[in-house]
Amino acid sequence: MSAVPRPEKAAKDDRESKPAGRFRRMLDRLSSSQLDLESEELQEDAQASGCTPIGDCGDRQIVRVTGTLRTVTLRPRAGVPALEAELFDGTAPLDVVWLGRRSIVGIEPGRRLIASGRISMSHGRRVLFNPKYELRPLGQE
């Protein structure tokens, strides 16, 4: 075996590194799954709003993130009510927890919001406790 790359392999790598044309991008969108398209749209929204991608957030970092709430549940922690929601921005999920709350008007699955606070890690997942938050207008969804 030789260590020299084969010409057809190098040509394929060159095609992947070049920007795709309009027709190629259209074919990629048509062949992508709905989940991939939604993730891409959420990532573009996060970048446009100047927020940090959740996938780039580290432990104990103060962040401002945006995304869509996937789930909202009432899960008591140490006997205290806690409203938990999973925020997803296309890169990674983030658990958002409001301690001492049973419900918050507007916090519901499918709603987009911007949250800010200090990230912590719990059982290998990113968690944001009692964040400052802004609900995104319903017309932008």
Describe the structure.
There is one protein chain. About 6% of the residues have low confidence. The protein is elongated, with a radius of gyration of 20 Å. The chain is 26% helix and 33% strand. The chain contains three helices and six strands. A five-stranded mixed barrel has the order 1-2-3-5-4. β4 and β5 form a beta hairpin. By secondary structure, the protein is of the alpha+beta class.
- Total strand segments: 6
> H/E series, N to C?
HHHEEEEEE
Q: What oligomeric assembly is this protein in?
A: single chain
First CA to last CA: what distance?
54 Å
Task: Give me the side-by-side strand order of the main sheet.
Answer: 1-2-3-5-4
Keywords:
5-stranded mixed beta barrel, 3 helices, 6 strands, alpha+beta, 141 residues
Quick recap of the structure?
With 141 residues, the chain is α+β, with helices and mostly antiparallel strands.
Topology readout:
Elements: H1 7-17, H2 22-31, H3 34-48, E1 62-74, E2 82-88, E3 93-99, E4 112-122, E5 125-129, E6 132-135
Parallel strand pairs: 3-5
Antiparallel strand pairs: 1-2, 1-4, 2-3, 4-5, 4-6
